[in-house]
Every structure is written in C-alpha cells, then in structure tokens.
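Consider the tokenized backbone below.
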C-alpha cells in the first residue's frame, strides 16, 4: 500500500493531515488556500484563496 505525504506551508504536517482525514471521513469538501498540497483523489478540495 502506498500513501501520500501531506505538506502544507505554514502549517504543521499533523494539522494538515488531520484536516484531510476529517474531510475524508465525513465525505466533506476540504477548503484550503493550497489545494495542490492535497493531491489525494478521494478528497474533494475547494480552493479558498487566502486574504479574500
């Protein structure tokens, strides 16, 4: 089994992984300013630009 390393700039890796896990487990969309940090096909990611 292979996994995906989650890196999010300015955020602890565990916080980014927790957000992705919560979105996945609830079938929710993950809103983030860095959608490319979450390349997993099973998670729907929506880009929310920072500072808008």
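A designed sequence for it:
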């Amino acid at each position: 089994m292979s996994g995906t390393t989650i890196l999010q700039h300015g955020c602890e890796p565990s916080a980014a992984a927790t957000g992705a896990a919560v979105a996945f487990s609830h079938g929710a969309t993950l809103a983030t300013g860095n959608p490319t940090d979450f390349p997993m096909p099973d998670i729907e990611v929506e880009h929310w630009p920072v500072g808008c």
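Helices lie at 13-26.
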